[in-house]
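Model it.
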Amino acid sequence: MTQQANIPANPIDVYEIATRQARSVITGVKPEQMKKPTPCVEWDVAALVRHMINAQANSAGTISGGQVPPGKTPLESFDAAVSIMLKAVKSPAGLEKKVQGRQGEVPAAQVLGGACMDLTVHTWDLATATGQDTKLALEVVEFIFPIVEGIAKRGSSKAFSAPIDVQAHASQQDKMIAMTGRKP
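Modeled.
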């Protein structure tokens, strides 16, 4: 595999770490927290969980070329999307194959990176809203930092608010979260 800019030697491993952390946070949501607001102001906890699942299903469908069947529970739906995503990217030439993304034909690795970024930022949102541990896996933060930074610099995302200033000595995670307009 030819390594591309901002793509580590094994982005699949990073995605697996991000999905395990997201699943843990989703599992930690209590029924009475579903109507709580989140740092992602347009969504309450229930809507954010649905978005996290749907975003992974859409990305998995883009890479696999098929639909992700819904599960009987939100966690089953999440697991199905992750399983299909991983099967597609682990196939021969899985990361290099061209797929039809939102901005035209792109390598599957780019869709995987976007899915990982979306999932990770929203994992932080969900953990914040539900009082869970907000510390993200360092490998994941390091992987998505340049993606978030690029989006923030271009101002090209409706998902991000204007970046918030943080102190120079802030952690890489806090700098990344602040780039999305969220207060770390």
